[in-house]
Amino acid sequence: MSSTAKSLFEKVWERHIVEDESADKPAVLYIDLHLVHEVTSPQAFSELDARGLKVRRPDRTFATLDHSIPTLAPDANGERPYFTPQAKIQVETLEQNTKNHGVKLFGWDSDNRGVVHVIGPDMGLTQPGFTVVCGDSHTSTHGAFGCIAFGIGTSEVGHVLATQCLTQRKPKTMRITVNGTLQKGVTGKDVALAIIQRLGFGGGTGYALEYAGSVIESLDMEGRMTVCNLSIEAGARCGMIAPDQTTVEWLRGRAYAPKGEAFEAAAADWLTLKSDEGAVFDKEITIDGSAIEPMATWGTTPDQGGAIRAGVPLPSNENDVKALKYMGLTGGDSRDVAKVDVVFIGSCTNGRLADLRAAAEVMRGRHVAEGVRMLVVPGSEKVRLEAVAEGLDKVFEEAGAEWRLPGCSMCIAMNGDFVAPGQLAVSTSNRNFEGRQGPGSRTVLASPATAAASAIAGHVADPRQYIA
Amino acid sequence: MSSNQEPINTFSSRLVVLPEANIDTDQIIPARFLTTTTKAGLGKVAFNDWRYNNDGSLKADCILNIIDPEEHRILVGGNNFGCGSSREHAPWALTDYGFKAVISTEIADIFRSNSLKNGLLPIVVPQDIHDKLTKNPQQRVTIDLEACELRFEDGTVFVFQIDAFSRQCLLEGVDAMGWILNRVSSIEAYEQRTGKAAA
Ligand code: SF4
């Protein structure tokens, strides 16, 4: 083994060093793609304006509306039902800021508007080997394409707008190898929840993750995005997967992807982005993917989860006791004891077409249980249109679910879509923190198929009973 | 160099102890307060759902409603403090409330980075030091950033780790935006070298 063997992370990192780090100075890292949304950008644009600065690379900066916008249609006068006047002001602020700075906004009038981490890949803005940042912690999603992609704060949004660069310390690296073959009915979401359970909620803090192994390779791009999306739920700012033929074919023909010969040349380069044999990681763990079952959380952090079949575990520490109390669950019970009030399908974790298809497959010809409110929110306008073309909206509506316009919606519950105090929600999103889906809300994280199965059963249910 | 933050050096304070593990940024400031377009005044909604009842009245038993923020500049949190969302509104809310430092056995990456840019000093300590802090919130401890020391009244001194550059920025109140703007010749050279210059 040569000592020059490099990991995927190191290869991409080295391509972006503007100034290398030293003991008393961080690296200056170049950013290829900067995604912007209404919630974490206003103060950054204000900072630029106060200093009389321009956006350095409007051609590498793309904005959209997703976090605080309504998912209900406008009224007869075309008025959108914003939850608060302040939410409307925030949207108008982004419209004005992007206009002033010549930044492309995929706004209300765009067929490409949607959750940032859905639209970037969808349009081929996200390309292998890129550095991608956004003022949102689930920017790790783009790592599915072999990108170093991570969430940043608003000060850093300002830095990238003004200089296209960030100061960064190189993180440690960890490789997570998931071997074996997935069982039927087990998805990327279940793999991710199993990984987080193994690592622990803060287990990835300080690391850049690389996911590898036969299970990861077998996932489609949507499944890979779900896995990388959830890296931050183990504390890791970024998680990545080496590009392969699946990645190349997925990107071919996308609006912003290179065309013709340029695409073939780019693809040849992308395929070199993988960890060399003998690459050294600060930590390595291996997981038996064949043993993973449909998963659901039962606590208030994403690592407090397990196989649905195993039921709610007995608490093993103080955190567990506190979490079970908040969730209104009892250790040792099976998962069908607690009644589900709300089911949410959507978000940057599981709001893509493949996710909606998986949920629809379970829902088709069935109906949500008495007393369950189900919301289906496509991740982007493009996803919505494609789903409608396939008739998925009808499947959901006939099953008794609400079919909404794209946005973050109940994932972050700042647009008026929220879970009422004390209600139990099964959600395909990414955080089950206390109050995340509204004050007093209780969240169970699961895959789209599991969420759909739970809507039908009225309690957290293993989807395999509904899949042919 | 111009600065948008006060330099920090040495200060002494009593402690606010929030012992729960995994205090995420949704707890520090719930998402429904993120529609603001400024940074100002978020201290009143810091830990909103811990501090207020649904009708907006103060919860009498919440420590954050009892103490005098002027006297309590140091927040000691449970393990994995600041996890979750990348919202910089979290350090904005904490500093506006009055905090100058956060101490835990583990502090989440993005929160740590955001804190350093807002004059909120994140300090990671081992379990025994954490225990010594949480046992007695009324004690006064001194944080000396120049020396990287956390000093107890009984003479115990803990030397904490902090990235040298971040420390310098905090000590001098260095303007991070100004610093990176000064890299412009390197940035241009990089763009030329890699074919990434604007067309
Ligand atoms: S869907 Fe949720 S996690 Fe994803 S970007 Fe929106 S708020 Fe953040």
CATH topology of chain B: Aconitase, domain 4
CATH topology category name of the largest domain in chain A: Aconitase, domain 3
The oligomeric state of the chains shown is heterodimer
In CATH's first tier, which class of chain B applies?
Answer: Alpha Beta
Structural classification of chain A: alpha/beta
CATH H-level homologous superfamily name of chain B: Aconitase, domain 4
Strand content of chain A: 15-25%
**Roughly what is the average pLDDT of chain B, rounded to an integer?**
93
Strand composition percent of chain B: 15-25%
Using the 3D structure, state the CATH architecture of the largest domain in chain A. Answer: 2-Layer Sandwich
Of all chain pairs, the largest interface belongs to:
A-B, 68 and 53 residues
- Percent helix range of chain B: 25-40%
Low-confidence stretches of chain A: none
| Domain count of chain B | 1
Kindly describe this structure.
The complex is a heterodimer of chains A (468) and B (199). Chain A is α/β, with parallel strands linked by helices and 468 residues long. Chain A is built from 16 helices and 19 strands. Chain A is 31% helix and 17% strand. Chain B is an alpha/beta fold and 199 residues long. Chain B has one domain: Aconitase, domain 4. Chain B contains 9 helices and 8 strands. In chain B, β6 and β7 form a beta hairpin. Bound molecules: iron/sulfur cluster (SF4). The site of iron/sulfur cluster has 14 residues of chain A, from α4 and α12. The site of iron/sulfur cluster (SF4) has 14 residues of chain A, from α4 and α12.
State the gist of this model:
Chain A has 468 residues and is of the alpha/beta class. Helix content of chain A is 31%, strand content 17%. The relative contact order of chain B is 0.18.
Which properties best describe this structure?
heterodimer; A: alpha/beta; Aconitase, domain 3; Aconitase, Domain 2; 3 domains; five-stranded parallel β-sheet; 19 strands; B: 199 residues; alpha/beta; Aconitase, domain 4; four-stranded antiparallel β-sheet; four-stranded parallel β-sheet; binds iron/sulfur cluster
